[in-house]
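Project standup — Tuesday

K.O.: blocked on the structure for the chain from last sprint. Re-posting the sequence here as requested.
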Amino acid sequence: MPDTPINVDYPSSDDLRLRIALGACRFRADPGEGEAWITGICHDPTDKRAPRIVEDEGTVRITESEPSFERIPAVFGGVPRYELAIGKGRPFALTVETGASEFEMELGGVPVSSLMVRQEWASSNSVSPLPTPIRWSCSRSRAGLRASS
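H.V.: unblocked you, prediction finished:
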């Protein structure tokens, strides 16, 4: 299956928010080096779970196509792989919500003003290192782990 490119420039708003809400997937995010806010790819082996990017003033949402009965067989064909680079140009609030996932996020140098991560049954996860002190919270609802700082 072909990769779907993800390219989002910084909005003109001063109050930036990025919300990533995905089902079961393999997710990796690293600091970006370019001028764009978010770049990367989604590789979907089933071609049934395309990424959907919605921009509304200073808020960008990266989600998947709306659920439907046609997507049910996609669960058996493999999960999408997201590989994102997140820009270091401007501060923003970040929320990441994933289903049963392999999850890695490297945030060194990325100016995250607040961070919330919610995962369902992750097989592995890593969020490191966090830039200067920020408000953050993390929950793994199905595993019973809730932490905040």
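K.O.: great, moving the ticket to review. Residues 132-149 have pLDDT under 50 and may be disordered. The chain has one domain: 3-148.
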